[in-house]
Amino acid sequence: MGWEPWTGCYKVSEGCTYCYYYGPYSKRCGQNTVQKTGEFSKPVEMTPKGPPKIAGGKIVATCFTTDFFIEEADEWRIEAWAMIKSRPDLEFLILTKRIDRFMQSLPSDWGEGYDNVNLGCTVENQEIAEYRLPLFLSYPIKRRFIACSPLLGPIDLTPYLYGVEHVTVGGETGREARLCDYNWVLDIREQCERANVTFWFKNTGSLFKREDEITRINPYKQGSLAKQFEINITGERKLY
Q1: Three-state DSSP class for 224?
Q2: Which of 1, 16, 149, 183 has the most CB atoms within 10 Å of its CB?
Q3: 184 backbone dihedrals φ, ψ, rounded to 5°
Q4: Residues near 64 by Cβ (< 8 Å), separated by ≥ 6?
Q5: Predicted local distance difference test score (pLDDT) of residue 17
Q6: What are the domain boundaries of the chain?
Q7: How many C-beta atoms lie closer than 10 Å to residue 9's C-beta?
Q8: Which of 90, 26, 82 is nearest to 52 (CA)?
């Protein structure tokens, strides 16, 4: 289940260079113009007979075609937080490249965090990991995960896995996609195994290297191919 309360984004780091948002989606919904969408109130909308349109127990992927913490949405985010808090029966999955805007983007009653918010920080290489993850871990968040996507190089997450529930890894998708090396993926998996953190190899990316062989992978097969390697580390919670 997805929720896009606003749309529009712009690049903030190397991982954004060939973002899928700058393809067909941006042509339909605009690109750099950040604006509210028609589904802004989706979490609290009711059916004609009364029950919420989003049934309880769902995972709601939030702002996956923009960034929840983008500056232009500061005014709307106040109401978005209120809707999130009003639906404790839903789990809101929020992924951001703008973790440095976290503290100034919180509701007044955040405290140590909302129980129904699972917040993910995206990192694509070691440099970005060393900048974003210390910030990420210093903030009051009850549930955290790391998304190495698109994975553009080897990353040592070892110093940052404490207090993190889960790590997702994925390659870059698109005609101009940069290489994803399977050895980088396996190394991160090993780090997660040592730290007792769940791990999901989400997709190979379009340009995938394994055993010195580089292969271009069809976008529709990248997820299923990653699954075939059977390297996910599962736990009681779902993998994101």
Answers
A1: helix
A2: 149
A3: -65, -40
A4: 2, 4, 95
A5: 82
A6: 2-228
A7: 25
A8: 90
By CB atoms closer than 10 A (0-12, 13-18, 19+), residue 166 is buried
Q: Residue 70: what pLDDT?
A: 96
The larger pLDDT score, comparing residue 51 to residue 166, is at 166
Backbone angles phi, psi at 46, to 5 degrees: -115, 150
CA distance linking residue 123 with residue 150, whole number of Å: 8
- pTM, rounded to two decimals: 0.92
Q: What are the tokens at 135?
A: 């910030």
Q: Taking the CA of residue 180 as centre, how many other CA atoms within 13 Å lie in the half-sphere pointing to its CB?
A: 30
Condensed to tens digits (0 to 9), the pLDDT of residues 7-32 reads: 988 888 888 887 765 555 544 444 56
The one-letter amino acid at 1: M
* Spatial contact of 31 and 23, defined as CB atoms under 8 Å apart: no
Burial readout 115-154 (b: 16 or more C-beta within 10 A, e: otherwise): ebbbbbbbbbbeebbeebbeebbeeebebbbbbbbbbbbe
Higher pLDDT, 68 or 10: 68
* CA torsion through residues 70, 76, 82, 83, sign: negative
Rounded distance, CA 169 to CA 153, Å?
Answer: 11
Helix (H) or strand (E) holding 66: none
